[in-house]
Design goal:
Low-confidence stretches: none
Distance between the termini: 86 Å
Number of strands: 13
Strand order of the largest sheet: 9-10-11-12-13
Helix content: 25-40%
Oligomer: single chain
Radius of gyration: 32 Å
CATH class of the largest domain: Alpha Beta
CATH topology of the largest domain: TIM Barrel
Number of domains: 2
Order of helices and strands: EEEEEEEEHEHHEHEHEHEH
Number of helices: 7
Length: 371
C-alpha cells in the first residue's frame, strides 16, 4: 500500500520451507516487526495470518500488540492446537496443516486502510524440554541456597524491630497434593528444620524468639498432636545446637451442644496446655476462634445463635483462656490473638463485636478469660 492507496485487507505473501525435520505442528508462533505509517491500520479488526490460502484472525490489531505510529514495533502471534480458543493474539492451527513442511504465508493488519512496512518475519519452534536430574547433594545445595535467600530476606526486612518469627509452620500436616513441597525430602527430615533455624539466627542482628506453629482444630486429638509436635522439636534440638524458643498454637475451638462431647472438648484443651507447659518453652495462641455446633455436629451460623448458645460459647472461650493462664507459667505466656473481631450473620465464627461494632457476649467471655 501507499499513503494515497493503503492496503485493503491485502497482505505481503511469502513461500517458506520449514527447517529440516520440522513440520508446522512443531511451531509455536510467528513474529514480525511493523512500522505503521501515520497509524494506518493500527486498529483494524485483528492481525491476519494466511497459510496456504486459509485466513486466521488473531483478534488483536497492531496497536494491541504495542505498535506505535511511525515507529518500529514487534508483533508476536501465538500458534495454538486445533480446538483451543483463538483470539487475544493467538490463532489455532488445524490438524490438517500440522504435517506441512512448506507453506505459503501472508501476514498483515485486517484493515481496509493499512499502510506499513514489515520486516524480520520469523516462525518460532520450541525444542522439547530436557530434564537434567540433579544428584541428591546438588538438590540439597540448591534448595539450601534458596532457603537462605528467603529466610535471609525475611529476617533482614524485619531488621531490629521484629524479633519473633514462626520458623517452621504446620510440620504435622500430612497433606500431599500438587501444591505440596516437602523440604525434608531434599534437606533431610531433621536437617531442614535445623538449617532453617541456623539461617535465621545467623542472619539476624538481634536475638530472636523462633516458634514452631501448627493448627489444632477442635476435632483433633489435641493431646496426641501435642506429643507429636513436642517429639519433633526434641529431635531437631538433639544436636544441642538448634533451639526452638516456643510453640505457636493456631487454635480453632468449637463449643458442642452435646454435653458429653463438650466435656471431651474441654479435656482436650487441658491436655494440650498441660503438655506444652511441661516443655518449659514459650507458648503463644494464635488465630483463636470459636464456633458452635448442634448436637448432630453441624455448625450453627452466628446469625442464628440463641442468647443461651452465645453465652455457652463465651463461657468456653473463658475456659480456654483461663486454662492457658493456669497451665502455662506466666513468664512463658507469649500471648493470645483472636481470629476475627467482627461477626457476619452468615458466618460461623462467634466474635467479640457485631458487624456494627457493638459488643456482644463473646467480648465478655474474653474479658473474663483475662481476669
Amino acid at each position: 500500500g501507499t499513503a494515497a492507496t493503503p492496503c485493503n485487507r491485502s497482505y505481503p505473501k511469502f513461500t517458506l520451507k520449514l527447517q529440516d525435520g520440522k513440520t508446522l505442528g512443531d511451531y509455536v508462533g510467528i513474529s514480525l516487526d511493523m512500522y505503521l505509517v501515520d497509524g494506518k491500520g493500527g486498529w483494524g479488526d485483528g492481525m491476519r495470518v494466511v497459510i496456504n490460502g486459509q485466513e486466521f484472525n488473531c483478534g488483536q490489531g497492531p496497536y494491541n500488540f504495542g505498535c506505535q505510529d511511525n515507529k518500529w514495533g514487534e508483533i508476536y502471534i501465538t500458534f495454538l492446537k486445533e480446538g483451543e480458543a483463538s483470539g487475544g493474539g493467538k490463532i489455532a492451527i488445524p490438524n490438517s496443516m500440522k504435517d506441512l513442511t512448506e507453506i505459503e504465508v501472508a501476514v498483515g493488519s485486517g484493515s481496509g486502510e493499512w499502510h506499513a512496512y514489515v520486516k524480520n518475519i520469523n516462525l518460532h519452534w520450541k525444542a522439547e524440554d530436557t530434564v537434567i536430574e540433579k544428584t541428591p547433594e546438588e538438590k540439597k545445595n540448591l534448595l539450601t541456597e534458596e532457603l537462605n535467600k528467603w529466610i535471609g530476606g525475611m529476617i533482614n526486612s524485619g531488621g531490629e524491630a521484629v524479633n519473633a518469627w514462626n520458623i517452621i509452620g504446620e510440620p504435622l500436616d500430612k497433606t500431599t497434593d500438587a501444591n505440596t513441597f516437602d523440604w525434608g525430602e531434599y534437606l533431610g527430615d531433621v536437617e531442614y528444620a535445623r538449617t532453617a533455624v541456623k539461617l535465621a539466627r545467623d542472619t539476624a542482628k538481634v536475638a530472636l524468639d523462633l516458634f514452631v506453629g501448627n493448627t489444632f482444630n477442635q476435632a483433633d486429638e489435641m493431646g496426641q498432636k501435642a506429643d507429636e509436635m513436642i517429639a519433633l522439636v526434641n529431635a531437631w534440638e538433639a544436636d544441642n545446637v538448634t533451639k526452638i524458643d516456643g510453640y505457636n498454637i493456631i487454635l480453632h475451638a468449637v463449643y458442642s451442644k452435646d454435653a458429653t462431647l463438650q466435656h471431651t472438648n474441654e479435656g482436650m484443651i487441658t491436655q494440650l496446655f498441660d503438655k506444652l507447659a511441661q516443655t518449659g518453652k514459650q507458648v503463644r495462641v494464635s488465630d483463636l476462634s470459636m464456633m458452635v455446633e448442634n448436637a448432630d455436629g453441624n455448625l450453627i451460623q452466628a446469625g442464628r445463635l440463641t442468647a443461651d448458645e452465645r453465652t455457652a460459647a463465651a463461657n468456653y472461650m473463658t475456659f480456654i483462656m483461663k486454662e492457658y493462664r493456669r497451665a502455662i507459667a506466666s513468664d512463658k505466656q507469649y500471648g493470645i490473638s483472636i481470629s476475627s473481631i467482627t461477626e457476619t450473620s452468615t458466618g460461623n465464627k462467634v466474635c467479640p463485636w457485631t458487624s456494627g461494632y457493638n459488643r456482644n457476649g463473646m467480648y465478655e467471655g474474653i474479658v473474663e478469660g483475662l481476669k
